[in-house]
Amino acid sequence: MPILARLLSDSISNDKKIKLLSVMQEISYGIKISWQESYLAGLMKQLTEWITQPMTEPQHRTIGHKSLTVLVNVCYANLPAIYALMRTVDTKDFVVHLISLKEGGYGGVEVCRLLLCLSGATRGAAATRQPDVHSYLCCTMRTFIKAVSERDATQLLHAYTFINDLCTDPNLQGFVLTYPHFMSCLEEGLKDVKELCRSDPDEMSEPENATNCLRNVLKFLTVLVNLDLYSMRSHHGALICLCMEASRMCLPESLELFAAIVSQYKDEGRLPQELISVISDGLPGLIVPPALEPGKAGLQWLQVIGALCESQETQERVLQEVTPAAFEDTLYSVLQHTAQNGVVGAEASQQAVVVGCRTALTLAPLQRSWEAALARMLAHHQVRKLLCAGLTSSNGSRRRQILQLVKHHCFPSDQMNQVFGESSRGVSPLAAPPGAAAEGGGEPACCAARLQPQQEHAVDALVAALADKLRDGKIADIATSSVMELYGYKMTCLEQRLHSHSVALQGASEHMASLQHALAMLQATNSSQQDVLYTTQMQNERHKKTIEDLHKQLEDAETTLRGFRAKLAAEKLDKEHQKENLHKEFRAELAGLDNEMKTREREFEERLKVAEADTRAVQKKLEQQTNKNGELAGVLIKFEERVKQRDKKLEEAAAHDAALRKEIEQRDSTIKQLEKTVLERENRLYQLTTQLEEMKRVQEMVAKLMSKSSSTSVPS
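Below the sequence we write its predicted structure tokens.
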């Protein structure tokens, strides 16, 4: 970072600025700054200048956005960087500018993270109000939807980090749970998430970016699911389908989301029927142990198996699909992988061991093979060591989980002493807090209460006496376990004292660092105040001569003022005489005007009387006209009644006319039918006449033939 910070300047081109800020954006995520580094002041000044510059061109907007991202990464959870920022800019003006950027949709999540950092540094995290948290969540959900549609992995990462911090902060978690718009935003974003999941990364121009987007989306959804909102359960089926589709690209995150969903129903003891129908098709693919790099996805796979064992419907599937040997191999792969990751790996190892032992304890009563697997796991030295490390750690929830394992009725009693025996031999002194031993209650070695200094000296004396007698052969028959128990007490006390001293030293170091930081700030303030004092003194000396000249000018001005006052007094007397003369003239004019006004008043009174007489005459005419109007109104009413009667008669005539027309139409149709009948009968008559004529002609021919035949028969 220091080298890259020195390269940032206005002299380089915009393309180089964007490339340099992109690199800094990647390497500054999660950076830890514990002291006032020399490069911070220059870096803060340059970044804030680019953030506050006018966004006139697309490149300027990109530079401002990336500068804001780098600034958030550097300031997040780093008080020295925040103090450097507050010394560089005017905090109020900068916050107003950030709020304008947030409302404008530009880098919303980064702005919210920076505002939360500044608020925590100035007022404390507990001073954040519910409307502020809801505003942050609204901006985060809006950024999430936009980033999913635009395939922006960086924005999705910031959205996940910010909402995870809000949900895990005990001061803000209550405000997060009251936010009412999670479901509407989730419904809008799931459509684009499904499209992202269905796309083939090999066919995309940037497959790595698509995978990172999906990974951050799944982490974001896991945080929402872990809020345990009842309204979220309606989307669990769609989210499980999403896990099954995304498992081919992001297996660890898909398994983690799946485990979080199933764990929501742990208290109920069974899954809803609609979820079981969704899970039944894709479950075999999810509970198959990860073959490629089992250490990376193994912890999430163990969590899925553990969550499925909490429900009776899925226990049988786990017993059928998962073998104890595969389960143990995955657990040991996780332990081997996390052993290389320092403190974070140790935390993951403890979580894996707790999940593995709890799953084995759940399945042990159902199959003997799982009971044997549990015994093998507890016999493993690393598993016992991690259980004891978790039992003596400062994580209260982890200690409760381990104690619940030990209290389980299937936990082998012969392994209990061996497990707790590791606490005095295999656990680092820094891993055992002072109150960790009190969690166990009745366990002999690691759970003993912390001893007072007098008791420690008494135990030391007893151990020394036992050692002397053992060398003399006087207690050859003593049980080795008793001596080991005493040594266990001694080691526990030493570990606790060492841990308390380490904690005190760490607190003192942090306090010293804060005091040194405050001293540096006071020294800087003192030097600036000394500069101001020196500048003020120089200006005072410079202004002394000016003040003397001004005093002389003031005396001259007073002399001139006295002369002006004398002249003013003489002029005042002249003005008073003129005023008296004017008063006399005005009185005479007023008397004349008064007489003239009285004359005009008499004239106006006479005119008023004439006008009143005219008014009375007009009123009389108006009354007469009103009476005439009343008579005309009566005539008009009678005329309207006559018109109504005529309209009624016209309507009746129209109805009668319509009836007559209808009757005429009916008679016309009857006439037409009769005419048609006459035509038909005439045709029939014509046909009959024709037939009759034919018959007559035939009859005549027959008669002729008969006459001819009779004539021929007579001569013969």
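Residues 288-424 form one domain.
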